[in-house]
Amino acid sequence: MKLSQDTPVSMPIKNMLGIIAGIIAGVIGYTELTGRLTSLETSRELFQADLLKKSEQLPTDQEQFMLVEDLYKTVEKLEKTQEQNMTNKVNIEFLNKQLEKALTDIEKLKDAVRKNGGAH
Questions:
Q1: Which pTM was predicted?
Q2: What pLDDT digit, counting tens, does each position of 27-39 carry?
């Protein structure tokens, strides 16, 4: 049997379409597989980079960050308490002035009653 570029090959069109469909399916599968592998490798590299960054922090640094965060929370609580105390101070001063005025008025009333002869 001699084969050359002029040798005729006969094949049913159904078989030829099947071969073409198989090749297309193989190319699509390969493309999807390489895309998925690339995605997984990228994720792994990012994860390792994050781990390296975290491992560069010393435990004392992590403890200091936690302490600083706790201090911020404490300062916020103190600020709220201080604002409430300032409001209380204003109220106390106002009531103190009102009490002094009331005592002065009571003394004036006592003096007026004594002048009118109301004292027994």
A1: 0.37
A2: 999 999 999 999 9
